[in-house]
Design brief:
About 30% of the residues lie in helices and about 15% in strands. The protein contains 7 helices and 7 strands, in the order ααβαβαβββββααα. The chain has helices spanning about 20-30, 50-65, 80-90, 105-115, 235-240, 250-270, 270-285, and strands at about 70-75, 95-100, 120-125, 145-150, 180, 200-205, 215-220. The two termini are about 35 Å apart. The mean pLDDT is about 95. Bound molecules: pyridoxal-5'-phosphate (PLP). Pyridoxal-5'-phosphate binds near residues 106 and 204.
């Protein structure tokens, strides 16, 4: 296969290279998926065959990323850029306070979307003074922040959080501030070591894990009670959770390819192995 086509090294930040074995499997099963007599792109998302793909993808992701049971895994669309708007819409409200760390152009876009919604947005720290060449470490939170948003890897500037910040709110209870994490550009490239303070983690899959069109949101269920009554159904995380991400037609072919990539990652030894492999690659390049 691919005998006429020379595959190239793709250094693009995304969409990025997918494993050849995955592409070959897709090609092999394209016209007739597992003797169903049809392609996955033609299949009802409510069919038994597709439901199995959906369930396997959820189970594989939960296992690979060690996602605790208190989180729902949602298959959405609209890319991380839509999450920039949905996170504040669902987790905060006009007049309330949220915090952001500004580590590059994607953080800035996330900040813009929160500001548009009339939230009081604190830029807790920024690395703009040195052209986003570092991850700021020193900051304090005020009382009563609904969440702290970070970008785990800054695609254009190449800086990455090695450990999530865990700031304590300056309220009487001194609780940890819930984190909202944009993991678009290092999703599935390393294990998540600490789920404790995460409220929401999101990523488009097109950088590492499938074709563009599928966005993953992983949300702790306790945050659904922040949703507002006037939020349209399809803009609420709980709608996806209640309907197995099928309130409307999901991006089924992308979910199928995502499952194949998840299986491939598991066969390679999982996310610890992925992280080691990625470290070696980055040493070669940088
Ligand atoms: C860190 C980060 N966040 C968000 C985005 C935007 O993602 P999308 O194109 O899926 O909306 C990108 C895209 O490159 C990104 O690298």
């Amino acid at each position: 296969m691919f005998s006429n086509t020379k595959r190239v090294y793709n250094f693009s930040p995304g969409p990025a290279t997918l494993p050849t074995s995955v592409l070959e499997e897709v090609q092999k099963d394209f016209l007739n998926y597992q003797a169903s007599g049809m392609s996955v792109i033609e299949m009802s998302h409510r069919s038994k065959v597709f439901l199995k793909i959906y369930e396997d993808a959820i189970a594989s992701l939960r296992s690979l990323m060690s996602i605790p049971d208190r989180f729902d895994i949602l298959f959405m669309t609209g890319g991380a850029s839509t999450q920039f708007a949905l996170a504040p819409l669902n987790l905060s409200a006009p007049g309330r306070q949220v915090s952001y760390i500004n580590t590059g152009s994607w953080s800035k876009k996330a900040i813009e979307q929160a500001k548009l919604q009339g939230l009081s947005v604190n830029i807790l720290a920024s690395s703009e003074d040195k052209n986003f060449s570092y991850i700021p470490k020193d900051f304090n939170l005020a009382e009563d922040q609904d969440y702290l948003h970070i970008t785990s890897n800054n695609t254009i500037f190449g800086t990455q959080y090695k450990k999530w910040p865990s700031p304590v709110l300056e309220s009487e209870a001194k609780t940890k501030c819930p984190l909202v994490i944009d993991m678009s550009s290092d999703f599935l490239s390393r294990p998540i070591l600490d789920w404790n303070n995460i409220a929401l983690l999101y990523a488009g899959v097109q950088k590492n894990a499938g074709p563009a069109g599928l966005t993953i949101a992983i949300i702790a269920r306790e945050y659904y009670d922040r949703e507002k009554e006037n939020t349209p159904s399809l803009f609420r995380y709980s709608t996806y959770a209640k309907n197995q991400s099928m309130y409307n037609t999901p991006p089924s072919f992308q979910i199928y390819m995502f499952l194949l990539v998840l299986k491939w990652i598991a066969e390679q030894g999982g996310l610890v192995k992925m992280a080691q492999h990625n470290e070696k690659k980055s040493e070669l390049i940088f």
